[in-house]
Amino acid sequence: MAKQKYYAYFFDDKRNGIVESWTECEKIVKGTKARYKSFIDKVVAQNWLDSGANYERKISSTTPINTKLEKGIYFDSGTGRGIGVEVRITDENKVSFLETLPKETVKKLLKNTKWTVNEFGNIYLGANRTNNFGELVGLYFALEIAKIIDCPLISGDSRLVIDYWSLGHFHENNLELDTISYINKVIVMRKEFEKNKGVIKHISGDINPADLGFHK
């Protein structure tokens, strides 16, 4: 039986709330710049609203899952600010690697792309990208950073990218060419990473320190 989820939406301090189905939430937020997010605990959902509905959340004592985060690299993608897709890559303490790595290293990571690091320490991909593409790019850069800092653990909350695309399970007919290109890069990089005893794990969006947005 699926767990009950709660869907919080936020326009401003006076107009916000929590509903119990995605269908109801979608009707409220569709076509707007409202922030929205799902939770498995209603109290945590209310805390999120009370704190201003910030996407870069701190993992706190109100998090309902008793999970100690392992030292590693965490990635996520989101569109919650209403400006396009952003990718966030952090450590277990939600500190962005794009803000702690040397600037020259970050410059090399983004070489041959048109992407930039925004004021939030995230990679901004633009308004014409999908969230799934952002998750894919997140894993790509997480693998690149893992080589730089010699980290054996990468975690994210995208089943599609972790359990399918990066393992070679995808349909070319349904995807854009640059998405296919990054999938193929990630497939090779993941094989090399795991050959060297690296581990890629799926975790819940509710405890992902890189969490940027909504999880249906």
UniProtKB/TrEMBL annotation:
One Pfam family here: Cauli_VI
Segments forming domain Ribonuclease H1 N-terminal: 14-48
Classification via InterPro entries: RNase_H1_N, RNase_H1_N_sf, RNaseH-like_sf
Domain of life: Bacteria
Name under which the protein is recorded: Ribonuclease HI
